[in-house]
Amino acid sequence: MKITRMLAVVSLCLGIISCSQAQKKSSETSSKPRQVQKTEAEWKKDLTPQQFYVLREKGTERPFSSPLNANKKKGTYVCAACQTPLFSSDTKFESGTGWPSFYKPLNTKNVEEEVDKTLGMVRTEVLCRVCGGHLGHVFDDGPAPTGLRYCLNGVSLAFKPKE
After folding, report:
1. Residues β-bridged to residue 127
2. Which residues does the record give as Zn(2+) binding sites (predicted)?
3. pTM
4. Which listed site, 50, 97, 101, 106, has its alpha carbon 20 to 30 Å from 63?
5. Which of the residues 126, 151, 152, 155 is marked catalytic?
């Protein structure tokens, strides 16, 4: 009985590792051609470790950790990796989630949405169309006029104040 349980656990662990490696390989091989393309080493050189984790490895920063969450200034939020304009301060709202939230992109041509099935959920991932950087996720529980909530990692954004 103990051997059967041990084999089941080992089999489960190997299955998880195999699935994880297949997902990683699939995401690496299915990436779209981007206007900004860099090697992993170049991204690591250009980004902070936290930015690299979020933008390139699809991580998530801790809620309420970004100063951009409380930013009330007028301006434009750009991709921290490639400086592409993404969201206007005019569409930013307080969602209470701990991450900067917007109800619509500045230009839909600059953002891309993909199905994200990680962590046992089905969500819509938001990416920078120019460099492919992971920004966060979009949900359908936002305010009018769109009803959308683009819940973004502050570390994946930079703020350019209005001049």
Report:
1. 112, 134
2. 79, 82, 128, 131
3. 0.79
4. 106
5. 151
